[in-house]
Amino acid sequence: MNTLVLKRTNSNDTDFKSLIVLLDKDLHKINGAIQSAYNEHNLLDFIETVVVAYIDGAPAGCGCFKKFDADTVEVKRMFVTHNQRGKGIAAALLTELELWAAEIGYQRVVLETGLLHAEAIGLYKKFGYAVTENYPPYVDMPDSICFRKSI
Questions:
Q1: pLDDT tens, 36-77?
Q2: Measured between alpha carbons, how far is 8 from 41 in angstroms, rounded to an integer?
Q3: 3-class secondary structure for the chain?
């Protein structure tokens, strides 16, 4: 059936927390030892702006954003479970996050991903994100690539 439902929630959401555990395992598998340098930047205090994707009622992906500056949000914790990839879930999540940010008055989005994450880089470029200089705290992290986009 593959019915996609997106839920706006916050970081206390149980499904979001479960997906983040899977994301962190995935990041450690892909990035290996370099992931330890990024762990502190992936800790999230309470976040009011989380989106969880469900396929046929089962959690399949997530993403969130937090304030970066007065006009900009930073997208964080984008993830789709391996068995649900290739179904447009990441695109739906990113679109929903951008819409939500625009609804509450933000004009730009920034985000960071790793150079080893070709699928993520391809998604962001497809959605009109441009590579930008690494912003803090990623300035001296050579394995990072940062993007920006006006919304």
A1: 544 454 556 789 999 999 999 999 999 999 999 999 999 999
A2: 23
A3: CCCEEEEEECCCCHHHHHHHHHHHHHHHHHHHHHHHHCHHHCCCCCCCCEEEEEECCEEEEEEEEEEEECCEEEEEEEEECHHHCCCCHHHHHHHHHHHHHHHCCCCEEEEEEECCCHHHHHHHHHCCCEEECCCCCCCCCCCEEEEEEEC
Task: Give the pTM.
Answer: 0.90
Give me the residue label for tokens 């954003």.
65
Identify the residue whose tokens are 């470029």: 125
Distance (Å, whole) CA 63 – CA 53? 9
Residue 42 tokens, joined: 């992936």
* Identity at 29, one-letter amino acid code: K
Q: How many residues does the structure list for the chain?
A: 151
Token pair, residue 138, equals 């990623």
Name the β-bridge partners of 84: none
Q: From the CB of residue 125, how many other CB atoms can be counted at a distance below 10 Å?
A: 12
Look-up of token digits 């994301």: 23
